[in-house]
Amino acid sequence: MSFFDSMNVSATGMTAQRLRMDTISQNIANVNTTKGDDGQAYRRKTVVFQEINDGKNFRSHLNRYMQKGNQPTSGGVKVRQIIEDNSPLTQVYDPSHPDANEQGYVEMPNVNVVEEMTNLISANRSYEANITAFNATKAMAAKALEIGR
Fold first, then answer.
1. How far apart (Å, rounded) are the C-alpha atoms in residues 42 and 85?
2. Which residue pairs, CB below 8 angstroms and at least 24 apart, start in 36-44?
């Protein structure tokens, strides 16, 4: 794996975690949205990651690595899709709310702010870990250039 491949792995991780943080922020911002464009309460969204590879197994990567001049390609992560959480919406009794039904209940989004904040901290830590790995690779490349002088 070259320096640029390892930087690419970290960069794809940072990009994926940034999108995850954006999605979590959207969930928190819509915690009280009872009516969206479709007329329904907001549904929590989650990000699904997928490994970037060429579909080959470990043996094929090892064989390619053992052949002279044929280095394995880098991996990384990408966002496969953003999906809606189909867990039930919360029913809150508030007959004065404009979106209340005949019984006085309002369908509230299925967003738990504590869970979202925990996920946001996790995504932030993952982003920071990718930055640390990127900077370590950059420092190694700088040291290698310095030794070559």
1. 10
2. 40/107, 41/89, 41/107, 41/108, 41/109, 42/109, 42/111, 43/84, 43/85, 43/86, 43/89, 43/109, 43/110, 44/84, 44/85, 44/87, 44/109, 44/110, 44/111, 44/116
- C-alpha 111/C-alpha 26 separation (Å) is 10
Distance CA 49, CA 80 (A): 5
**DSSP string of 37-77?**
TTSS----EEEEEEE---S--HHHHHHHHHSTT-PPPP--E
DSSP-derived letter for residue 95 is T
Question: Tokens representing 58?
Answer: 């470990």
Condensed to tens digits (0 to 9), the pLDDT of residues 81-120 reads 999 999 999 999 999 999 999 999 999 999 999 999 999 9
Delimit the domains of the chain by residue range: 3-139
Both tokens of 69, joined, read: 């001049």
Largest Cα separation within the chain, whole Å, is: 79
**Tokens 């995504």 correspond to what residue?**
123
The reply to whether the predicted model has a pTM over 0.70 is yes
